[in-house]
Amino acid sequence: MRHVISLLVENKVGVLARITGLISGRGFNIDSLAVGETENPALSRMTIVVRGDDAILEQVRKQLGKIIDIIKVIDFTDEEFVERDLMLLKVNVPAGKRGEIIEIVEIFRGKIIDVSQKDLVIELAGAEEKLEAMVNLLRPYGIKELVRTGSIAIGRGTK
Hints:
Blueprint: E1 2-10, H1 15-25, E2 30-37, E3 43-51, H2 54-66, E4 70-75, E5 81-92, H3 98-107, E6 111-115, E7 119-126, H4 128-138, E8 143-148, E9 152-155
Antiparallel strand pairs: 1-3, 1-4, 2-3, 5-7, 5-8, 5-9, 6-7
C-alpha cells in the first residue's frame, strides 16, 4: 500500500539522516522525499512516500514520533489531502515539431521556461500520473533531461 507521510521537524543538522535511517532500517524503500522550510524558518516539512504493509508502517510512525526533533507526524493514508509533484523536463525539438510539443505542453497546463533552437525546458506540476502521461507523450521527441521534486502534500480543510 502507498503511504504519504508528512513530518514537521526542527530545522537541524542530522534530522534527515535519522529519519531516513529509521525508515530504511525497517525495510521500506522511500519512493519520494521532499524537504523544505515552512512558514517558520526554524521548522521544515518533510513529505515521504513509501509503499508497505500497514502494520509495519504503524510501528515506523510510532518510532518517528519518538525522535525528539520531530514535532508532528501525519499519515495521509486515511485523510483527505492535496498532493503535487514538480517536474522540469528538457526535450529535443526536431525540425518542424516545435508546434506539436508546445501544444502538448499547453494541454497539460505546463509552462515552457527556457527556449533554444534545439530544445525546450518545460515545467509541469500536478499529480504523478499527469507527469507520467506528459513524459510518455514527449518521449518520442527525445527527452534530454528530467528532474522531479517528489511529492509534497497538505491536508484539506481545517483541523
